[in-house]
């Protein structure tokens, strides 16, 4: 019987925000854990199509790197598939080398590989000195991984119909381990069983001819959505069978399609027993009073919004597709409707100045001051592979970032600031440290 292992890589502190609390000193807002819905979907699809296959899914949030490596040595799978986002790439290589030494075929999927496929194959593929990766898959992994395991010469790269995907098979990873971990990290939380779903893939703004924020590395090109009934079937199962009380819909523009949202809302209204929601939306989707009322009414509790900057020129240089008045209107409407905001800010836009940084800190302060339950997440502009910004950096730095799959991110950020900003690294870091100095009650938030 063929054996396969799928691994979700994880770095401690992913996305964590350093905070300073006068009582406890400096600490990070604790994160997660996040159930790896992408990799479990790949495993589920494969098992449905080839029931006799033996598949194991390991998640570094639950097992240590050493334990997973030991499991690879014991199981000796024919294929090892590894999920990769940019910070975890060195870890991906570690697993890949171990698996390759044991004779497994190694493939990677996820955001990072999708953007640097050519570079990865050049440096880690069969013709390289460090051969440890056989294939890199971008986009939806379900069908591609199935074709690869089945030995098909040409792997399909169709965009999947999201309504036709099977519901996640929780035999691969039991949600209860994630609930337990969540509870030990957030013992005071109002929520006991948080979970992730996605109702869309892709983003309307990125699909537009001149659209897409320049820092965005999202690999999904065309906006696709699940039927509201499909996504509610998933949510109902989570609530009724697993007691889920908090759902983060990780789709990038939950409110991007008005008719779809009305359909989702109408389904929400039919249900008495439903979870609270955390959703992500653009500020320009949050300026219609009726829409904001509806998200409050359907049980949303926290809204992720990328405000990015308080300066219009920076919003233009990052190609955000909206200006400050829109950000301000969204803040006031969310506040009026009792919705908590998790606001994202990016320091280091092309053309950033001390003055524009000040406007950003002022906007961030206005989010904090709007409600005691709001949180801000500031970060320094990172020119990720797959983004327009990465191409800008490559253009200005000759060969430095060309043909490479392992990149020094501190160096890339420094180069970005010195080439594109009109402030120093020091100025950006002092604004960052200031924005990270607020303390929060994170008991129900940081999932
Ligand atoms: C949830 C999420 C997180 C979570 C959890 C991530 C996780 N590992 O589960 C947290 C909060 C921890 C997080 C952190 C960060 N994230 Co994040 N995150 C997301 C988000 C919103 C959803 C991901 C998701 O679950 N999608 C739904 C599932 C079903 O799709 P999927 O994950 O893409 O999986 C499919 C394919 O990738 C593929 N696949 C996946 N694994 C494998 C493996 C194999 C073998 C194969 C064949 C296929 C395959 O098949 C899956 C099913 O179709 C995306 C945006 C988005 N909408 O995708 C950003 C996104 C992935 N994150 C991003 C960023 C920038 C970050 C942070 C850097 C933020 C920060 N400032 O700290 C950190 C660092 C992460 C890192 N490792 O480097 C970027 C891209 C990063 C990159 N290029 O690697 C994205 C695209 C956002 C954006 N618009 O730019 N993130
Ligand atoms: S960052 Fe968000 S809004 Fe901007 S293009 Fe990417 S997914 Fe769309």
Commentary on this structure:
- The protein is of the alpha/beta class and 447 residues long.
- The protein is built from 17 helices and 15 strands.
- It has helices spanning 37-49, 65-75, 89-101, 111-115, 117-124, 142-149, 175-185, 204-207, 228-242, 258-270, 289-297, 312-317, 324-336, 354-370, 388-396, 409-420, 425-435; strands spanning 3-8, 18-21, 25-28, 54-59, 79-83, 105-109, 135-137, 194-197, 200-201, 224-225, 246-249, 276-281, 300-308, 340-347, 375-380.
- The strands form 4 sheets. A 6-stranded parallel beta sheet has the order 8-11-12-13-14-15. Strands 4-1-5-6-7 form a 5-stranded parallel beta sheet, with helices on both faces.
- α14 links the parallel β14 and β15.
- The protein is globular, with a radius of gyration of 22 Å.
- It starts with a strand and ends in a 12-residue tail after the last helix.
- It binds cobalamin and iron/sulfur cluster.
Structural class: alpha/beta
Work out the radius of gyration.
Answer: 22 Å
How does the major sheet shape up?
A: 6 strands, parallel
Strands of the largest sheet, in order across it?
8-11-12-13-14-15
Chain oligomer state: single chain
Shape: globular
Tally of individual helices: 17
How large a portion of the residues is in β-strands, by DSSP E?
Answer: 15-25%
Please count the beta strands (DSSP E, at least 2 residues each): 15
Unreliable spans:
14-27
The residue fraction in helices comes out at: 25-40%
The small-molecule ligands in this entry are: cobalamin, iron/sulfur cluster
Give the distance, in angstroms, between the N- and C-terminal Cα atoms: 38 Å
Mean pLDDT: 92
């Amino acid at each position: 019987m063929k054996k396969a292992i799928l691994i979700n890589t994880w770095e401690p502190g992913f996305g964590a925000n350093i905070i300073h609390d006068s009582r406890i000193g400096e600490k990070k807002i604790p994160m997660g854990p996040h159930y790896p819905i992408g990799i479990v979907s790949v495993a589920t699809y494969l098992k449905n199509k080839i029931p006799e296959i033996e598949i194991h899914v390991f998640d570094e949030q639950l097992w240590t790197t050493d334990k997973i490596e030991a499991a690879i040595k014991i199981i000796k799978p024919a294929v090892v598939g590894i999920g990769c986002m940019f910070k975890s790439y060195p870890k991906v290589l570690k697993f890949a080398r171990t698996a390759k030494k044991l004779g497994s075929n190694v493939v990677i999927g996820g955001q990072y590989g999708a953007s640097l496929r050519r570079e990865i194959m050049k440096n880690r593929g069969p013709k390289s000195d460090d051969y440890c990766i056989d294939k890199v898959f971008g986009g939806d992994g379900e069908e591609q991984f199935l074709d690869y395991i089945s030995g098909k010469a040409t792997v399909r790269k169709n965009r999947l119909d999201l309504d036709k995907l099977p519901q996640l098979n929780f035999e691969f990873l039991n949600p209860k381990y994630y609930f337990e971990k969540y509870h030990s990290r957030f013992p005071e939380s109002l929520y006991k069983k948080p979970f992730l779903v996605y109702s869309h893939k892709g983003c309307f703004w990125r699909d537009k001819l001149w659209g897409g924020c320049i820092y965005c590395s999202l690999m999904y090109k065309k906006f696709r959505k699940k039927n509201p009934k499909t996504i509610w079937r998933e949510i109902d199962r989570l609530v009724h069978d697993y007691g889920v009380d908090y759902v983060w819909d990780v789709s990038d523009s939950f409110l991007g399609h008005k008719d779809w949202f009305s359909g989702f809302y109408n389904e929400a209204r039919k249900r008495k027993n439903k979870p609270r929601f955390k959703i992500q939306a653009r500020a320009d989707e949050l300026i219609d009073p009726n829409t904001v009322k509806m998200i409050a009414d359907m049980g949303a509790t926290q809204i992720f919004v990328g405000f990015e900057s308080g300066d219009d020129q920076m919003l233009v240089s990052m190609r955000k597709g909206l200006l400050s008045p829109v950000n301000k209107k969204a803040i006031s409407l969310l506040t009026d409707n009792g919705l908590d905001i998790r606001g994202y800010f990016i320091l280091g836009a092309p053309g950033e100045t001390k003055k524009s940084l000040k406007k950003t800190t002022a906007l961030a302060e206005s989010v904090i001051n709007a409600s005691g339950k709001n949180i801000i997440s500031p970060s320094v502009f990172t020119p990720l592979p797959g983004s327009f910004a990465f191409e800008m950096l490559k253009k200005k730095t000759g060969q430095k970032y060309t043909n490479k799959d392992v990149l020094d991110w501190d160096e890339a950020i420094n180069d970005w600031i010195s080439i594109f900003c009109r402030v120093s690294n020091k100025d950006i870091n002092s604004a960052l440290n200031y924005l990270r100095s607020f303390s929060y009650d994170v008991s129900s938030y940081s999932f």
